[in-house]
Automatic annotation (TrEMBL):
Pfam families: A_deaminase. It comes from Caulobacter rhizosphaerae. Binds 1 zinc ion per subunit. This is Adenine deaminase. It is an enzyme of class 3 (hydrolase). Residues 11-326 form the Adenosine deaminase domain. SUPFAM superfamilies: Metallo-dependent hydrolases (SSF51556). Coiled coil: none annotated. The record marks 220 as: Important for catalytic activity.
Amino acid sequence: TALETFVRGLPKAELHMHIEGSLEPELMFELAARNGVTLPFKTVDEIRAAYAFSNLQDFLDIYYQGAGVLLTAADFKDLALAYFRRLAADGGTHAEIFFDPQTHTDRGVAFETVIDGLVQGMEEAERTLGVTSKLILCFLRHLDEASAFATLEQAKPHLSRIAGVGLDSSEVGHPPAKFARVMQAARDLGLKVVAHAGEEGPPAYVWEAVDILAVDRIDHGNRALEDDCLTARLVQDGTTLTVCPLSNLKLCGVSDLKEHPLKRMLKLGLKATVNSDDPAYFGGYLLENYVQTAEAVGLTRDELVTLAKNSFTGSFLEEAEKTERV
Ligand code: ES4
Ligand code: ZN
């Protein structure tokens, strides 16, 4: 379609994508076979049929299970490269990807294996596709502070490869304040700080991300709109929100894409961006998120350009690059 061609032609950065969430069922089977791992599914269709979620936890349970096929550096490299190829096909030119080390170290895969494989994929993507990227290490918020600190310790020899830290996994019951000290320690190491907030959690969690963690971006942030004072604060600070429309739909944060707040966010003056979150699980990569949302809520060409520009101004690229690459 004309809309698709227009959006594909806009240079875009993706700022909210969990690399483990880009594991397509086909690659999951391939890696399971390669590694001698048994999956509780027999066919690709059977896996896709299991991807009907009613909330975040529902999804996380199956997402952590899928990640169990990732064992070697080559697996992580193949995973990353497959994602970068899809991104390039969508007209994406830069990505800041999340990875969840604890998901892997807790089942005996070394931190080095994960990061070495991902970095190999990132370097090959830059060389062969011209797609640049950065890594954001996410702490699993359903685990405790000590586990997050142990993970930060493991990251120390690799800080030149890591742009920032984030918080992901089960939000409700695990407010940002739980990780105040480890996020400060990460900032003291020179890392950027982001956090999922307001995906399922209340506005109070977004306030904590802003006031206690002093985040550089908010991941999701949808529920911030329930609090006018908080919304005004995010507008005033120019805080980038990494919004994930198809994720919100699949995890039932919105009942229909027509109800999605993206257009409202832009009209309020929030620095919203469009992202895919876990594209293999939520049924669409970056371009699909732009196009389906644009059709559902009626985004103008100007608004689409704004979203694409916001993805660079909100990125962790150097200031000069942000303006050169839009
Ligand atoms: C996630 Cl959609 C979402 N929310 C929180 N944590 C996550 N990890 C992977 N996808
Ligand atoms: Zn996410």
